[in-house]
Design goal:
heterodimer, A: 8 helices, B: mainly alpha, flat
Chain lengths: 276, 270
């Protein structure tokens, strides 16, 4: 594979991507749904990008396209200048619903991706233990997922993704299934993890929480249903940052107010009716 | 303070460990059934219904004479081979049908058709094809057990959690790796349940075969004793068959624990 990136090209290029899929309604009628329309955006290496939007705006679809789990109807996606044709070891996904293998211990779950890459047992073990330490689960290696809390399960999910050492970490509402306190704690820790990871990670983080996007990201992409990309805001704060400091920052309040007003019609207005 | 101690007073049985309590309840129920049985048997007479106390003597007799031992060996032979064949065939075909949906579409009507055929109705044909040796008995056991095993395996593979499959794809798994690292493990608990149902069916098949084909095994003993009106001995054999069911069910359950310990280690159950 040829490396096109010479430090100037974006790591991820989404070019004119349209994604349509056929949905079955009531088991009989079918309908073509446009999840993304003519979307174009670039993400630079090392960026932490939050994709923000209400449900149904196509943000998860975008993540799945970048992951290579589904192909665009039109347009193309390039990673390092190479078109995406399927999943690859340069990308790893952290899922909202964790998706751990219930018959594998914490350690074996973290090793899963490396196993598929054909990494030797000894190296696998070493890297898995490293990743487990990074997410703060040292001592829990022999536990099965069902024996761990939701927050701990997602730490395993993050460790599994980090262990394959991807260039691009794709996170699909990773803290959406957690309670508010755990969620806030995990946000702080994710910042530390990304800062401490061996290589500077590029992260695409899908969320519907304005606060979460503002706490974590360098850049916030706002998506809405139908119009796709609505806003592209680069945040003026340094990373890693503390939530408590952020809350009183005037720039933070200003951006938050702006985002609230941008997303408002969607949250308070009538639900856009499904097109026949 | 005093009020709280009153509120916290628990019934005396709460001091017994739960597992011991369950065991005691089981034994109690057994004793109750035996007592009722004994009383009813004394009322109606031991020919119609032999009382449990008489069965102990009858059991001793047929063990002593070697009848029971010989019958058990015969029965277990047919049962073991027939059940093993059912597992082999059921799990293999079920897995293939779950993995290749078009194969399932092709086979489904045939399996539905075979499933409703009462195996006993096939007996004349089986005798014509295989004579009256061990082969038709083995095939009967297999036919009794195979469909439950096949259908549960098929359903388990077909309804595999697609989210786990997708996760494996993200981390670069090919079809073979998805099969060996996700699908097989994920379906083990359900396949185990199928094996357990199949085990009970296999025992029924075994007795039916022995009654219908040739007077061998435990079914043969039942025929033998009924021709002599030894109802107490018939009862003993029936109990031995029931015990086999309990034992085989227990063995399969141990096997399930062994192959899918994670499934039984979930702490949030009960």
């Amino acid at each position: 594979m040829q490396i096109h990136n010479n430090g100037h090209n974006p790591l991820v290029q989404v070019q004119n991507v349209t994604k349509q899929y056929t949905k079955t309604i009531g088991g009989t009628r079918t309908q073509t749904v446009t999840a993304l329309a003519q979307l174009t955006l670039n993400i630079q290496a090392g960026e932490f990008v939050a994709i923000l939007g209400a449900s149904g705006c196509g943000k998860t679809t975008l993540l799945r396209l970048i992951a290579g789990l589904t192909m665009p109807t039109e347009g193309r996606i390039l990673i390092d200048g190479v078109p995406v044709s399927g999943p690859g070891p340069d990308r790893a996904v952290v899922f909202q619903d964790f998706r751990l293998l219930p018959w594998r211990t914490c350690l074996a779950n973290v090793e899963f991706g490396m196993e598929l890459l054909g990494i030797s047992t000894a190296q696998r073990r070493e890297r898995a233990l490293e990743a487990i330490a990074l997410v703060g689960l040292r001592g829990w290696e022999t536990y099965y997922p069902a024996e761990l809390s939701g927050g701990m399960q997602q730490r395993v999910g993050i460790a599994r993704a980090l262990a394959v050492n991807p260039r691009l970490l794709l996170m699909d509402e990773p803290f959406g299934a957690l309670d508010a306190i755990t969620r806030s704690q995990m946000q702080q820790e994710l910042m530390q993890i990304v800062a401490n990871a061996a290589h500077h990670k590029t992260v695409i983080f899908v969320t519907h929480s304005i606060d979460e996007a503002l706490i974590l990201a360098d850049r916030v992409l706002v998506m809405t249903r139908g119009r796709s990309l609505l806003e592209d805001i680069t945040l003026p704060f340094e990373r890693p940052r503390r939530q408590s400091e952020l809350l009183t920052d005037s720039a933070y309040i200003e951006v938050k107010q702006h985002l609230l007003s941008v997303l408002e019609p969607e949250s308070t207005g009538q639900q856009s009716a499904p097109q026949p | 303070m005093q009020r709280s101690t009153i509120a916290n007073r628990k019934p005396f049985w709460s001091t017994i460990p739960r597992s011991l309590g369950i065991r005691l309840a089981q034994i109690g129920l057994g004793v109750l059934l035996l007592t009722v049985w004994e009383i009813v048997a004394l009322q109606v007479g031991s020919f119609i219904l032999a009382p449990p106390t008489a069965l102990v003597a009858a059991f001793g007799e047929i063990v002593q004479s070697g009848d029971l031992g010989r019958a058990l060996v015969d029965s277990l032979y047919g049962l073991a081979i027939g059940y093993a064949l059912a597992i082999l065939l059921g799990v293999t075909v079920g897995f293939l049908m779950g993995w290749y949906p078009s194969l399932a579409t092709i086979l489904n009507p045939f399996i539905s058709a075979l499933y409703v055929v009462p195996v006993a109705a096939l007996v004349p044909l089986l005798i014509v094809w295989f004579g009256i040796g061990a082969t038709p008995r083995i095939i009967t056991v297999m036919l009794f057990a195979v469909f439950e095993i096949l259908l549960t395996t098929y359903t388990a593979v077909r309804d595999i959690d697609q989210r786990l499959v997708e996760m494996a794809r993200v981390f670069g798994a090919n079809q073979r790796q998805i099969l060996t690292r996700v699908v097989i493990q994920a379906t083990l608990p359900l396949v185990g349940a199928g094996l357990r149902i199949g085990a009970g069916r296999a025992i029924k098949g075994m007795v039916v075969a022995e009654l219908l084909f040739a007077a061998t095994g435990l079914g043969g003993l039942v025929m033998h004793y009924s021709s002599r009106f030894q109802t107490d001995r018939i009862m003993v054999v029936v109990i031995v068959v029931a015990m086999m069911g309990v034992l085989l069910g227990w063995l399969v359950q141990r096997l399930e624990y062994w192959i899918a310990p994670w499934y039984h280690r979930r702490p949030n159950r009960s």
